[in-house]
Inverse folding.
C-alpha cells in the first residue's frame, strides 16, 4: 500500500462570508510531485498555509505522514519545509547567517556541509556574505530554495519555486526538484508556469473558487481540451482561408502571411479538405496540440463566464 | 523547550539588532536623554529646596528603574513587529519553533540589551550627577526583576493585540509606557494621586516597587508585604498575559492574520 504524505478530508476554510476553500479532499503519495494549480484567489495559498498549520481550518481533517498537528506538530514540521517567493527572510542578516539560523531551527546535522552543498547547487556562493535586503528577487528565490532543502524534508511545499528566476537557473531548480523525487521526497507545488508543471508533476489538482475542479495527470488534463491550433504560412489564398474559417465558425487570427485557426481535433480533416477545395496553397503547416496551459485558460474562462 | 532553537532566535535577533542603527540608538540615546532631563530637573529642585533631601538620587533612581519596565515592554514587542514587517514570521513558524521558544529567545536578547542600557545609564548618572549605585543597593535586584516582568507581561498583551488586530494597534508598543507611568508613581508618592487614580495605581506591581524605592533611599526599611503583593500581582498578570497571547495567536490562525501581508 502506498504511504500517504498528505491526506486531506473535507477541508473547508471560511473568513466571515468568504469561502476560501470549500470541502476539498485529496491525498499525495510518498515520492509524488503534485501541482496545485488555479487562478489567483482560487484557494491555493490558503490550502498550503493550512497544510503548514499557519491557518486553522474551519472544518475538515489534515494528516501529514499519517499524523495530525494537534498531537504531532513538532514531529511533522521537523520533516517538512516550505519555500515561497512571497515570504521574506530577516533582511539585515547575511545570506549565510539566515541559512545558519534556519539550519539551527531545523536542528540540521552537519549544517555547514549542507549549506555549502546547497549554496553550490543553487549558485549562492557569490552572495553568501551579502545582506538579504541587498539581493535581487531572483537571488532571494534561490536562497529560499536552499533553505527549503536544508533539512532534507520528506515533504516539500513550494509556492512558485521558479518565479523571477532566469531560465537557466529555473531549469536548474527543476532538475533539483526531479532529483529530490528520485531520493523519495514528496513535493506539492504551485506554479503559473504550465510548461514547468507538465515537466515535473506526476499529477495536478486544479482548484478554483476554493474547490477542486479537476484532478489528473498533466497529459490527461491537456487532452480534455479538444481544440488544436492549425498554423499555416500562406502562399496563396489568405483571404479565402479567412472567409472559409469565419463561415465555418473557427476562431482565426492572422499576422502578415501567418494564419492560425483553432479547431476541434475532429475538424482538422474538414478544414484541410475545405482549403484544398478552394485552391488555397501554403508553404508550411504545423498543428499545436493542446497543453496544460490551454486547459488552465479554458477552465478559468469557463468559471469567469459562470 | 528546545535550547538549540532558542539559540537560533538569539543569534538571529542579535545580528538583527547590531545592524539596525535605530535599535542601537534605542539602547543609548533615549536612556541618556531621560537621564539628562530628569537629572537637570532634580539639580534645579535640590538647589531651590531648603530641606536638603537627596532629590537627585531619588529621581535618577526612578529614571533608571523605570528604564527596566520601559525597555522590557518595548523590546519584545519590537522584535515581533520586526518579524511581521519583514514578512519573516511565516519562515520562522513553519519550522518546529514553538511560541514559548521564540519568546524566550527574544526575551534573552532584550535582557542583554537592557543590561547594556542600564550599565550605560549608571555610568552616565555617576559621571554627570555623582549618582552612586549604592543608593539603590540590593533593592535594585527585586525592583529590576519585578519591573522587567511587568514590562514583559504588558508586552505580551500588546503583541497579542498586534497579531490579532494588525497595524492599527502598533502604537501601543510605544504608548504603553506613557499610559502606565502616571499610575506607577515613578516620580511622586502614591498619596499625591487623586482617589480614583490611587485605586488603579494599587493594582499595578510597579507602584509598590517605586514606593519602596523611595522608602529604601530615605534609609527606612522596605515593606516586605508590599513587595510580595507586587510579585503576586506580577505573577497573576504574567499568567493572564500568556493566556491572552496564546488565545490571540490561535485567533490569528483562525482569521488568517498570521500570514497576511503587513
Amino acid at each position: 500500500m502506498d504511504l500517504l504524505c498528505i491526506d486531506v478530508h473535507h477541508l473547508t476554510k471560511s473568513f466571515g462570508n468568504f469561502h476560501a476553500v470549500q470541502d476539498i479532499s485529496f491525498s499525495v503519495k510518498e515520492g509524488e510531485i503534485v501541482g496545485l494549480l488555479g487562478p489567483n484567489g482560487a484557494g491555493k495559498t490558503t490550502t498550503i498555509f493550512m497544510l503548514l498549520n499557519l491557518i486553522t481550518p474551519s472544518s475538515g481533517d489534515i494528516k501529514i505522514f499519517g499524523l495530525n498537528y494537534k498531537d504531532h506538530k513538532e514531529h511533522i514540521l521537523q520533516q517538512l519545509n516550505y519555500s515561497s517567493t512571497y515570504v521574506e527572510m530577516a533582511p539585515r542578516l547575511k545570506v549565510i547567517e539566515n541559512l545558519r539560523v534556519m539550519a539551527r531551527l531545523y536542528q540540521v546535522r552537519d549544517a555547514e556541509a549542507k549549506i555549502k552543498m546547497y549554496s553550490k547547487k543553487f549558485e549562492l556562493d557569490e552572495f553568501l556574505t551579502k545582506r538579504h535586503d541587498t539581493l535581487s528577487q531572483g537571488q532571494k528565490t534561490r536562497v529560499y530554495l536552499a533553505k527549503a532543502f536544508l533539512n532534507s524534508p520528506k515533504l516539500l511545499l513550494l509556492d512558485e519555486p521558479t518565479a523571477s528566476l532566469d531560465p537557466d537557473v529555473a531549469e536548474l531548480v527543476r532538475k533539483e526538484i526531479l532529483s529530490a523525487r528520485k531520493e523519495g521526497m514528496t513535493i506539492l507545488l504551485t506554479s503559473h508556469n504550465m510548461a514547468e508543471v507538465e515537466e515535473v508533476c506526476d499529477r495536478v489538482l486544479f482548484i478554483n473558487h476554493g474547490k477542486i475542479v479537476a484532478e489528473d495527470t498533466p497529459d490527461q488534463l491537456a487532452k480534455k481540451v479538444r481544440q488544436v491550433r492549425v498554423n499555416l504560412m500562406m502562399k496563396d489564398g489568405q483571404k479565402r482561408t479567412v472567409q472559409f474559417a469565419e463561415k465555418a465558425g473557427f476562431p482565426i487570427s492572422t499576422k502578415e502571411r501567418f494564419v492560425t485557426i483553432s479547431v476541434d481535433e475532429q475538424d482538422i480533416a474538414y478544414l484541410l479538405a475545405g482549403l484544398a477545395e478552394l485552391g488555397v496553397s501554403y508553404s508550411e503547416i504545423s498543428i499545436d496540440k493542446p497543453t496544460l496551459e490551454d486547459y488552465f485558460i479554458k477552465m478559468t474562462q469557463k468559471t469567469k463566464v459562470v | 523547550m528546545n535550547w538549540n532553537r532558542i539559540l537560533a532566535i538569539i543569534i538571529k535577533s542579535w545580528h538583527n539588532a547590531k545592524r539596525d542603527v535605530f535599535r542601537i540608538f534605542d539602547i543609548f540615546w533615549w536612556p541618556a536623554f531621560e537621564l539628562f532631563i530628569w537629572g537637570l530637573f532634580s539639580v534645579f529642585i535640590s538647589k531651590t529646596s531648603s530641606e536638603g533631601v537627596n532629590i537627585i538620587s531619588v529621581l535618577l533612581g526612578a529614571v533608571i528603574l523605570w528604564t527596566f519596565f520601559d525597555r522590557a515592554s518595548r523590546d519584545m514587542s519590537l522584535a515581533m513587529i520586526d518579524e511581521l514587517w519583514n514578512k519573516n514570521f511565516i519562515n520562522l513558524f513553519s519550522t518546529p519553533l514553538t511560541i514559548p521558544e521564540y519568546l524566550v529567545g527574544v526575551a534573552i536578547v532584550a535582557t542583554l540589551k537592557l543590561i547594556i542600557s542600564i550599565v550605560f545609564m549608571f555610568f552616565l548618572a555617576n559621571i554627570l550627577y555623582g549618582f552612586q549605585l549604592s543608593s539603590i543597593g540590593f533593592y535594585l535586584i527585586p525592583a529590576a526583576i519585578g519591573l522587567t516582568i511587568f514590562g514583559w507581561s504588558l508586552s505580551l498583551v500588546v503583541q497579542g493585540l498586534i497579531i490579532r488586530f494588525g497595524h492599527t494597534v502598533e502604537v501601543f508598543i510605544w504608548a504603553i509606557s506613557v499610559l502606565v507611568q502616571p499610575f506607577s508613581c515613578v516620580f511622586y508618592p502614591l498619596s499625591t494621586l487623586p482617589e480614583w487614580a490611587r485605586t488603579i495605581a494599587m493594582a499595578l506591581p510597579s507602584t509598590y516597587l517605586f514606593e519602596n524605592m523611595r522608602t529604601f533611599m530615605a534609609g527606612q526599611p522596605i515593606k516586605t508585604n508590599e513587595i510580595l503583593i507586587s510579585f503576586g500581582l506580577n505573577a497573576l498578570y504574567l499568567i493572564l498575559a500568556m493566556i491572552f497571547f496564546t488565545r490571540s495567536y490561535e485567533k490569528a490562525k483562525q482569521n488568517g492574520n498570521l500570514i497576511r501581508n503587513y
Notes: The first helix of chain B runs from residue 3 to 18. Residues 3-255 of chain B form one domain. The mean pLDDT of chain B is 86. The interface with chain A takes residues 2, 4-5, 7-8, 11-12, 15-16, 19-20, 86-88, 90-98, 250, 253-256, 258-259 of chain B (CB under 8 Å).
